[in-house]
Amino acid sequence: MEDRITTLLSYTNETVAQDYFPISEAEAKARGYVWRKPEDHNYRITLPAANLPETIQDVSDTITQEIIGCASRNPDPQAGGCTTAFRIVPQELAFYREMNLPLPRVCPNCRHRERLTKCNPLKLWHRRCDCNHQSLMINHYQNTTAHSHGTDPCPNEFETAYAPERPEIIYCEQCLIQLFTQLENAPRSFSGGVY
Ligand SMILES: [Zn+2]
Ligand SMILES: [Zn+2]
Ligand SMILES: [Zn+2]
Prior knowledge:
Strand content: 5-15%
Shape: flat
Radius of gyration: 24 Å
Bound molecules: zinc ion
Helix content: 25-40%
Order of helices and strands: HHHEEEHHEEH
């Protein structure tokens, strides 16, 4: 099924396959997938992104007539296929005004790529629970309830989408449930950090 789909569509820019399982052009061709180079865009940019107003209040209705240059301009098709320029349509402008949001600086493809960098990858790492009982004190958080592992570091291991080099504290399910119980019972003035 996968082969059938990828012979009809280009692996690089017509499916989301490249978002999650990036491969090179040579690899795609070796597997018999279609690889279409993104078309060249020769947009006549009338407004570079750097010249966009800082706030939505300073944007006039004429913005919908501009061809805005993407601030990213990443030419690598594997990096999401920057279209180099974009427009703001009236409905979109109305939405940004209603939500009080500044205009985007990059094209929709680059926005998509930036969003993906904020998602966990489709990959799991084997890790051990970070709970070290009371000796752990990060972001003002400290265990105050007894955990099943006592005062020793928690021995539980598991698979997680959070890579070991990431800054988040990763707890096993057991310690996490105990953490939530602690927070529910905590006084309102509790100043916890990011969990
Ligand atoms: Zn772009
Ligand atoms: Zn644990
Ligand atoms: Zn624990």
